[in-house]
Specification:
Length: 136
């Protein structure tokens, strides 16, 4: 079964100081299925990689290499949200005290009836409250 992939898990796959057995477990699941992400995901992972480079967490020359690794995985990026999707996302953000960015992952998981893979504690709590299954 597919799942919604939060950037926190994807970054644990490529940033050496964030690797974990939980991230490895999700990667194992991805080898058997695919993931879906909201339209903001490419910008979010790009920002994390650029900031990791600026903070000397990774070599600046690795940013494009790590991006290529992520884009080689079976991950589908959704199209930009329509008005109804945005309204649902804003509602979830307000209800659960999330950013609209994090709420977009929750909205996608709800709409597609998919579990969510995230290491973000606030997003995980919101998913549990919204009865969205968690991958990790």
């Amino acid at each position: 079964m597919s799942f919604v992939l939060d950037s926190s898990v994807a970054m644990a796959w490529v940033l050496p100081d964030e690797s974990s057995s939980a991230a490895d477990s999700v990667m194992g699941q991805l080898a058997q299925t695919s993931a879906v992400v909201p339209a903001l995901w490419p910008l979010e992972i790009g920002n994390v990689l650029v900031m990791a480079s600026r903070r000397a967490r990774i070599d600046p020359k690795k940013v494009h290499e790590l991006l290529a690794v992520l884009y080689s995985l079976p991950i589908t990026v959704e199209a930009a949200p329509d008005r109804d999707t945005l309204v649902r996302t804003l509602s979830l953000a307000e209800r659960h005290g999330l950013t609209t960015y994090d709420a977009s992952y929750l909205e996608l998981a709800q709409r597609r009836a998919l579990p969510l893979a995230s290491f973000d504690e606030r997003l995980r709590a919101a998913a549990s409250a919204a009865r969205v299954a968690l991958v990790v």
